[in-house]
Design goal:
It is a single chain. The chain is mainly beta and about 280 residues long. The protein has one domain. The chain has a twelve-stranded antiparallel β-barrel with strand order 2-3-4-5-6-9-10-11-12-13-14-15. A hairpin with a 3-residue loop joins strand 12 and strand 13. The longest helix is centred in the first third of the chain and has 18 residues. The protein starts with a helix and ends with a strand.
């Protein structure tokens, strides 16, 4: 309870501290740090269609900035995250029963020092994730759980630190996270990431058309350390690093990012689209 009170106070107090550092704005229209292209746990609004026709990923999530402060080349922001990541089963007659759903909510803090073609900064997240099976995970014909996986209690609370650099069309980042509470409690309490994305300016004459590429490597501590790879390549229509629609091809290899499936290894090729808001 005390932890929740401290977080609520932080949301109200931090903007006042930042405001003293320079010119500020409540609820700006654009995020100071746009989502990393291939990182699974970023705000997304769209679908990923598994090419093996067994599942669909439905992502309904958003990050908003509560307050942003600018002082010359340096900017700060405090915001909130509310994500859902949903796995749907693909069945006959256009049926998509909900199999598994993960919820993430929390706060984020961003610092950016931008000099034009080069920038550097850091993002800090305080977040909670809980995972659940839904009614679509139960097979009504066999009266059993799909994949012989009954529900388990899965949740985690963590702090995540992500330094990043921006160089022309490239962004590079790394992440270290400490999970201070997790269920099941035999799972590890840390994870690490490195990755990059590239939003090309090759079509400079077509300002609303941007090819992009992203790669993310995630080292997850289950009962041992395991690696997950995520690759995304596509085309964005709209603002280069802002609002628009992205069409892409993606590949994920590793233990599932859905908490209820943490014991299941997957190799998934997908076609997807996302509304970048």
């Amino acid at each position: 309870m005390k932890r929740k009170i401290y977080l609520v106070l932080l949301v109200f107090i931090l903007p006042l501290v930042l405001r003293a550092q320079g010119k500020g704005e409540y609820f700006p229209k654009k995020l100071l740090l746009q989502p990393f292209a291939a990182n699974i746990f970023e705000p997304r609004l769209g679908f990923d269609f598994n090419l093996e026709k067994s599942s669909v990923e439905l992502n309904i999530s958003n990050s908003i900035e509560i307050y942003e402060c600018r002082n010359g080349k340096i900017s700060y922001a405090v915001g909130a995250d509310l994500f859902t990541f949903t796995r749907l089963r693909r069945e006959k007659e256009f049926h998509f029963p909900v199999d598994a759903i993960d919820y993430l909510f929390g706060l984020n803090f961003v610092y950016l020092n931008n000099t034009g073609s080069f920038g550097k900064g850091v993002r800090v997240r305080l977040s909670h994730i809980s995972a659940h099976f839904a009614d679509g995970h139960f097979d009504n014909y066999t009266h059993s759980w799909h994949d012989n996986l009954p529900p388990v209690v899965y949740s985690r609370e963590f702090i995540e630190i992500t330094p990043f650099v921006v160089f022309n069309d490239f962004r590079f980042y790394s992440t270290a996270a400490y999970i201070y509470h997790i269920d099941p409690d035999y799972l590890g309490q840390d994870y690490y990431q490195v990755g990059f994305d590239y939003f090309s300016s090759v079509f400079s004459s077509a300002k609303n058309l941007t090819p992009f590429l992203g790669y993310d490597l995630r080292l997850v501590h289950l009962q041992k350390y395991v690696v997950a790879h995520s690759i995304k390549v596509g085309l964005k229509f709209g603002e280069r690093r802002g609002r628009g629609i992205s069409l892409y091809f993606s590949f994920f290899s590793g233990y599932s990012f859905h908490g209820e499936y943490f014991r299941v290894k997957r190799n998934i090729f997908s076609l997807g689209f996302n509304l970048d808001i």
